[in-house]
């Protein structure tokens, strides 16, 4: 009698397990279909919105980029004049080749003289100021 009850309970649990697995599989299939339909319905609109945003923002991005480069060109003579003074490289004041950036704890003064020119006049000096010589 106990063996019969155990077999019936086991069969009952196997039936429940099978039904639950089938239900879960059906839910997954349904959710995949819903996701696919949403993607088909929304994706073209999102792509169109993305393209429109790019078209609308492109002039602003170009304007900002242009303004930034214009500002950099405008202040370059001043930066190339002030930065060498602050970094104690008097021969580099006003030189177009001055770089003055620090890499790995070491300043690169310029490509021709990585640690700067020790004398008063650098032989590779090129003025950032229109008209030539040192400012």
Please give a quick description of this structure.
The protein is mainly alpha-helical and 135 residues long.
Describe the structure.
Helix content is 63%, strand content 4%. The protein has one helix at 2-86; strands spanning 101-103, 106-108. The chain has a two-stranded antiparallel ribbon. Strand 1 (101-103) and strand 2 (106-108) form a beta hairpin. It is elongated, with a radius of gyration of 36 Å.
Radius of gyration: 36 Å
Number of beta strands: 2
Q: Main sheet, how many strands, which sense, barrel?
A: 2 strands, antiparallel
Strand order of the largest sheet: 1-2
Q: Number of DSSP helices?
A: 1
Please report the distance between the alpha carbons of the first and last residues.
110 Å
Beta-strand content: under 5%
- Write down the overall geometry: elongated
What level of helicity do the residues show?
A: 55-70%
Content-based structural category: mainly alpha
Order of helices and strands: HEE
Q: In terms of per-residue confidence, which ranges show pLDDT below 50 for 5 or more consecutive residues?
A: none
Q: How would you state the average pLDDT, rounded?
A: 83
